[in-house]
Every structure is written in structure tokens, then in C-alpha cells.
Amino acid sequence: MAAAAVAMLTSPLLAGAEVSPAEAQGMPNCDITCGNMSVPYPFGMGLARCYWPGFNLTCNRTSNPPRLLLGDGTLQVQELSISNGSTFVSVTHMGDIEVDSNGEGKLGGGLMTNGPFTISYNQLILVGCNVQATLKNGNVTMSGCSSVCKNGDGLAQARSTLEAGMQCSGNGCCQSDIVFNPEVAGMLSNNTSYDVQLKWFGWNRSADQASPAHVFVTSYDWFSSTAIFHELLRTDAPESADAIQVPIWLRWEVVGHGAECSNVCKSKHSNCIKGKRGYTCSCKHGYQGNPYITDGCKDIDECKEGGYTKCYGDCINLNGSYHCRCPPETHGDPTIPGGCPSPVPDKQYCCNLICSYYRDESK
């Protein structure tokens, strides 16, 4: 089975997701649980030998439930998996991106430059009146959009637009895809942080700032949640953006520290995939588990009830595969219900019946 590596920031209602026991395998004598979440290698907690460099996580057990944290502690891991061929992890960042009096801010989370993580496949959301947001990674513009409020009713118009199931069109809020290209001008970019610049273009900036602008980098569809946009676009009371958990996708690869297929994909039943910056691994077809540790990819018993295949005959499990056949003295297709009919009558028996019949007729 394919393997995955994923990190994402999630909605305020999403609790920490559990990792399948088949993939929740860490290094010997290392803690791999934080609350209801499991931490499979190359991720890890505690001692340096428990994780590949750069994949260290922290479990805050003083909170209830415990929180699994990444980077400087402002990113909470919500989904963590190494299955299904994905190379992402889901984390949440609390609130919008803070900007100073000049309209400048940064989203980072303490992710190390040239480390395993990059911020990717997200969306820029801007809520505010007569303001423009530009998102940059170094000197490269990644996204931007403008939000206009006419006669002070922009936020109400935006709420009506979203309630109708449409995207922010620029009245009170706007949204724009973030262009993600890991290779710019022949060089690999390190998307570990974004710089944000807000510029107000209305004639009365003090009036425009009566409803503070909020800028978010978030996963797709987050802002379409009714509870989210109602909170941010409310006009009857101040919004509580600081209490909102914003989901973000992070992509990862195993990089640096002598990383190569032979020492990254340690299971003998694993595949190695070379990426733009490093490597990821997956278990071969017919196996599941953790390809990053020795003997981590385990054979799938397809013959077990609720397994990965349908066999209505005799199922024989094999290493990395299985064999499905009709029971003895039957034939047909054992992969469909009733595909192996009752035993065929013996040919000699049939012959004897026919011969007897003809002998009776001759009397």
C-alpha cells in the first residue's frame, strides 16, 4: 500500500485525528502518543533518536485534551498520516495574521529554513473595507486580492454572497488561490513562511479601519463554513478572530542529514519516491504500515473479514498478495457471489444413466 506524509491546520470543530495502529510505529523505546493522536516515525517526540532531524514534535499535556505542537508551538497538529500516498500534514494556527501599523505581517510558525516542511496548497482570505492584501515568499508574489466596501455595507454584502454559496467577490471580503511553485527561476524556494502587506486605498482610512482587516492563509473551503464567515463578517458586535483556529496544509519530505533512499525507506517492502527536495516512502502493494522503519511494512491479510478484496471461494493469503479459488469439485468465478456453482455430475455417472436409458428402450 502507498504511504503518506501530511500536515494540515484545521477548523475549530475538528479534534485531533487518530492514526491507524498499522502505521503508528516509532523508534524503539520512544513515546508515540499524544492524547488520542499517534506519532509515527520519521515524526517523533523527546530524544533526538526518536525522530528524523526536523520532524520533532512537542506534546503539551498540560492542556485537556493534550495538544500536539509543531515549530514554535503556534501550530497544532490535527492530522498526521503516512498512508495513502499523501505528503501533507494538517495543522491549525490560532487567529489571523497579525500586522503592524504599517500593514506588514508574517506567517511562519517557526518552521526551519531548508527543513522538511513547506507551506503549500492553501488560499488567501482577506476581510475588510477598501484594503488590498499581497502575499509574498521572499521576492516572489504568491497571491493577492482587494476588498471594497461601498457605503459601508461591504461586510453585509459579503455575508449575503457567502450565504448564497458563492465565493467572496471583493465586496467586504476577497479570496485568491496561492500560487505554489517549489522551483522559481531555476532555484528551489523555501516556502516556510509568507510575508503579508496590507494597503488601504479608501479616501477615509479611519472609517475603513473601524472594522479591522483580517488576513488569513488557510486550506480550501475553510472560509465557506457558515460559522466562520458569520463570525468574521458580523456587524452587530466585534468579531472574535483571535479565537478561531485556522487550518493550513504543510507539505513534507525527508531532507538533509545524508538522506537517500537506502537510509530513509528502511522497510524491505517499501518504495522510495524522490521529490524536489528530498524523499518520501510508501509500502509496496499488498503491505501496510510504516516504510520509514525496519520491518515497518507488514503483509496485508486480504482474506480476513472486511479485508481489501472480495473472495467468495477459498481465500489463501500470500506475502504481499492472495489467491482466491473455487472450493474443491467446483469451478467458476470465486470473486462474485455464487460464482462457484454446485459440483458438476460425474461424467461416468451421466454415461451410465444414458446407457441404461437406451438399454431400457431396446427391450
UniProtKB/TrEMBL annotation:
Presence of keyword Signal: yes
InterPro entries with a match to the protein in the record: EGF (IPR000742), EGF-like_Ca-bd_dom (IPR001881), EGF_Ca-bd_CS (IPR018097), NOTCH1_EGF-like (IPR049883), WAK_GUB (IPR025287)
Superkingdom to which the source organism belongs: Eukaryota
Location in or out of the cell: Membrane
Coiled coil stretches, renumbered: none
Signal peptide start-end: 1-24
UniProt name for this protein: EGF-like domain-containing protein
The organism of origin for this protein: Triticum turgidum subsp. durum (Durum wheat)
